[in-house]
Amino acid sequence: MVRHIFLMGFVIGVLPQHAVALxxxxxxxxxxxxxxxKEHCYKCHSRAVADPEGGLxxxxxxxxRQGGDSGPAAVPHDVSSSEIIAALRHETIQMPPDAKLPRxxxxxxxxxxxxxxxxxxxxxxxxxxxxxQIWEQIYQSRRDWWSLRPVTRPVLPRGNQQWSQHPVDxxxxxxxxxxxxxxxxxxxxxxxxxxxxFALTGLPPTAEECSGFVEDRSDxxxxxxxxxxxxxPHYGERFARHWMDVVRYTDSHGYEWDIPAKGAxxxxxxxxxxxxxxxxxxxxxxxxxxxxxxxxPRFNEELRINESVIGPMFYQMGEKRHGxxxxxxxxxxxxxxxxxxxxxxxxxxxxxxxxxxxxxxLDAISQKEYYALAGVMMSSRWTTNTLDLPSRNKDFIEQxxxxxxxxxxxxxxxxxxxxxxxxxxALTELVPEDTLPHEDxxxxxxxxxxxxxxxxxxxxxxLRDLLLADSAERTAxxxxxxxxxVDFNKELPAGWTLDGVGTRQTVQHxxxxxxxxxxxxxxxxxxxxxxxxxISTKLNGALRSPLYQNMSAPFFSVRMAGGQYAAWRTPxxxxxxxxxxxxxxxxQYQWELFPTGTDRFxxxxxxxxxxxxxxxxxxxxxxxxxxxxxxxxxxxxxxxINQVVAHQTEEVPRDEITRYAELFDAPSPANIQQALERYxxxxxxxxxxxxxxxxxxxxxxxxxxxLLTPWITNNKDDVRLKSLVEQYRQLEQKVQASQAVNGMxxxxxxxxxxxxxxxxxxxxxxxxxxxxxxxxxKGAGPFKDSGSxxxxxxxHIASSANPLTARVFVNRIWYWLFGRGIVATPSEFGHLGEQxxxxxxxxxxxxxxxxxxxxxxxLVRLIVTSQTWQQSGKIKQRAIDNDxxxxxxxxxxxxxLDAESIRDAILAVSGRLDRSLYGPTSDPYRNNEDKxxxxxLGPVDGNGRRSIYTKVTILEQCKFMSLFNQPxxxxxxxxRDVTNTPAQSLALLNHPFVVGQxxxxxxxxxxxxxxxxxxxxxxxxxxxxSRSIQPQELDRWTEVVGKLSELHGExxxxxxxxxxxxxxxxxIFNTKEFIYIR
Length: 1078
Prior knowledge:
Residues about 1-20 have low confidence and may be disordered. α25 packs across α26 (about 840-850). The longest helix is centred in the first third of the chain and has 40 residues, at about 1-40. This protein is α+β, with helices and mostly antiparallel strands. Strands 4, 8, 10, 13 and 15 form a 5-stranded antiparallel beta sheet that branches. It has 35 helices and 20 strands. It folds into 5 domains: about 25-125, no CATH class; about 185-230; about 235-385 and about 745-855 and about 875-880, no CATH class; about 395-735, Galactose-binding domain-like (Jelly Rolls), CATH 2.60.120; about 990-1075. The protein is flat and about 120 Å long.
């Protein structure tokens, strides 16, 4: 009994102390350890992460004790064996990787291990709510990153009164003062004008501009020069080329053959115009994201185009893999990723694409937000948009429309006479031996010619019975087997949309296409509905169906005609690159079959698109890549469509041939001549109804057959019609071809994309509502728009409240002008990027940029009028010691010209430069062309045009410019590499372009009347270096000329020796000063 009492007392005494220890350990863990794990560790080491780093899970006791690749993270009571302590101390692995945690936190973990590592987490909370809680904690810890804070307008420091009171200089000087540094003196005028000309136009200054500025000693000389270059049309070319890097501009989509990027050069010209017109950058942002959806688009009345609709071509840049992207799953996801990457980097300097497989490792971007954007991208159709305003070609179209009734009347009169002139013998002679089908106009005639005269009446009655019975059977079968889904002769059904100039008016039965280039008068007659070629085949068109999914009927049939590379496309699952298309090659209406019930279409989101080649986003396709170049460039193309029907079998609807009822609505003929009269009456009735604009469907089918028979004369040289046809053709030649550009179209209900778990498209998670990044949309939540949501996306990104958009662009401008951004990573403002060297300056410039209406020109003016930008490149020893990378900008950095400027400068000084703006690209020069890959050979000098007009091809870039670091256009490029390689020197020595321009410049100088070698050298060097040439320099170059004259065996007439002056020009191109700005 005593023993039991003793044991009871022992238990009563011990248990409370043990419980207290457990409670104390749990409380210590909850207060000191768990918050650190959640804030700093869970983002890489929890079940919320698809692929935990090092196999280590720290979100449960078991995971902590088991550890990862390096061993157990926590061993109770054993600090030395607990890897987490070594990691926190940065002794082995450095965790967290970005910065060592304060010492007191590490000491807390040591205490915890010594306590026995108490951990109440029996298992990780891997539920959806648990993962969301983990992400929420991570998100809250990341949302205060410097670039995500609102833009503020700092108070300007006093600055240095003696140096400058310019706002930029006051902020720069304050940073220099804190580093015990001084700015460099102002550069000389020759240096400044060369620096400014290249910075603002990408071209060297002309001799006249140099002389004018050097001689202008007024106080406002610099501002006048700045204004001059800001107003230059070449300013737009310069800044457009900068932006083209950011959006991965390319004229083709590359891969194994160079797929053309339709309308890319129009997007380039759009950028040039936008910068030259100083379009507000927030407007430019909205246009590139959702220009097709803007309520008040920006019209260019001079060109008569919609500028805004060109903007979404931005999405269409980059590489597109071959094959229909609906057939190869991985291709689709890669291309989608490229577009999200380009969007987020270009406008937000944010790497959203890093969240494709898991929540972002460093930034406040979740995986769900990646797929919220994916839904936005995939809710719009990837197709073309027409640029032309109704006013473009309006006068010509109206004149042609008024002329057509005259052509109709004259043609009808001529044809009625023709029908009366046709003889039975002539018809019989031209009828083929093979039996014609019932649909053929001359079937009855052929049958009558095969019987003797006395049997004609009987045969006529047999044919009547045969054809009327066949007609009734065909009609009944069509009614029972086919359901008319769309009759375009009536109003356009809901869900169907039109685009293009050629579709702005529908046609009625009997409208017609006048042959505009061939030998005919009339090319075809139209059934009521949609027809793009009714006025001119240069006018484009697109007809698009609503989405079809799980279609009830296994077959569709479409009655249509078309030619000149018009096509019927069936994009599946909104494929980026659709090769499911049928080229239209028949001017006679045909029923075309569409097998909707095959595995390829079943349970897929499919729509039909009927397009002329200008409106075909994938013309030429891989299947038509070897078409003649003249066919590819010819704008003519047309299609016509009348009906769409659904049916259960593969048999398409048949011509109901009810037109024969009118032929047989008369007594039977006794002979062939009477049969001819029956025919004449029948055909003339159809022609007469056509002349009166009263044609029926059957009349149109009859008239189209007439075009193929000797019943009528359908020749443009027919004297009765020649004048009218010539008048029509001359007027039609003045019609400008329609313009279209690839982009996006919102035509359907938006779709929500499903998360690809770990980025694997085979493993799908929940759908994510369409929306934008929570951190940049003030937690607005899913988009409200029932469509794609792109317009809401544009509003979020282009908002002055967005902390990134203006900041990022201001930093890009600074980078383009200085060669280094205030943030040295222009497309990465997150944790992977660098922090700003002058944060107050960046915010002040950003607030000023927004205050000035997002004006790029005013921002550039503000920066280049600062003394900071006008500094010389002289460096003091103290500056080298205190700031070797020149982050504080104590001098202006010397820089090599970019690839385009090197090439353009060579053209400019050689006298070969064509300064005209805009227009299609020219292929780059290549050693060998490969037409099967569409790698065509361009002229060595690009016809003298600026580099921005040289085609940018993914498959094989311009080799000369790629040597000088023109970026690879597959991905966005915020900052160009600057390398110095032997290949660059060899290119300047040996490339045919450089050699050719040296020859051109040398020949030009030989033909000029220079009095002395000195005067010629002085002029050439001044043109190349934009400065006066010192006497000692001239002496050295004169020695060079002397050696060259000896080399070429010329001593008496050196000024007239082409070889000598070619070598001089070539030597100048190879000097360092020619390709650098100071």
